[in-house]
């Protein structure tokens, strides 16, 4: 009999938690016992996994007995409190929140970029910020070839990054606007329907210089994952009325020239990256076509002649999958493969 692993999903009723379960199922991850954990509000609710019904349990300090892998996606404060209990029980915690990402003792991993860091874990492996994951996946082969000096990124982020209730808010608000009805919003600080919000409030507060926490995450996490503090990164993160799939305009400056053809060649050879780059045929990455896919898509590749050596790229991926659930399950797959 092949070996199986006891797995806990913390935040199993949430947007990412549900995708974690679906991804374990899609990848046929060798799950033995599965423990689904959420708040006391959800205790007793049912969820299906591989055709079998499971009961959601309330997350408690002793929830991790016998668990080998604990996937966390129930918010930073829950991770801060409960990840240590999971580790104490002997589990490896793969944490999708920002709670431990910048801790020097915690590896921050994108398996296509720094897979060996997985094995430096002392019980916790952090899953990076969604916008950062898809960007570094594309930066890595270009950095290896031409050394990236500077990155300027602007994001167009889907509402699902703010959870299930945010998706509901976009749909209900869109309907209300179309019907010219009042809508009382509870998630976003401004109307998200038919709008673009240059702030991701769910990601935390405002930091020095007026940067949002999401922007600072992109700046710091990129350097940590790429293992290169010399890469200068600046970011503007924007929420757009898209349900699923983050899009990014990424401008990079390199030490040597990368032609469009070379960039396409390098990216096409990169694991889990798909080049969609034929403007004449209207072929470029789109949020709606990246939804539900594990890969990251790149297109609109152009040389930037305002600097000595530069490139512009358009990068899209499903924020709930590569940006969260799939990256976490991919880490778990590498971990058990050893
Ligand atoms: P619940 O559904 O019981 O509130 P999303 O990101 O889609 O908003 O989901 C957040 C996830 O985090 C949900 O599964 C939610 O469970 C879970 N969660 C929120 N607060 C707690 C808590 N105090 N303890 C355990 N899980 C929590």
TrEMBL record:
One of its GO terms (molecular function) is aspartate-semialdehyde dehydrogenase activity. It comes from Candidatus Auribacter fodinae. SUPFAM superfamilies: Glyceraldehyde-3-phosphate dehydrogenase-like, C-terminal domain (SSF55347), NAD(P)-binding Rossmann-fold domains (SSF51735). Catalyzes the NADPH-dependent formation of L-aspartate-semialdehyde (L-ASA) by the reductive dephosphorylation of L-aspartyl-4-phosphate. Residues 6-121 form the Semialdehyde dehydrogenase NAD-binding domain. NADP(+) binds at residues 13-16, 41-42, 160-161, 319. Belongs to the aspartate-semialdehyde dehydrogenase family. The gene is asd. Pathway: Amino-acid biosynthesis; L-threonine biosynthesis; L-threonine from L-aspartate: step 2/5; Amino-acid biosynthesis; L-methionine biosynthesis via de novo pathway; L-homoserine from L-aspartate: step 2/3; Amino-acid biosynthesis; L-lysine biosynthesis via DAP pathway; (S)-tetrahydrodipicolinate from L-aspartate: step 2/4. This is Aspartate-semialdehyde dehydrogenase. The keyword Amino-acid biosynthesis applies.
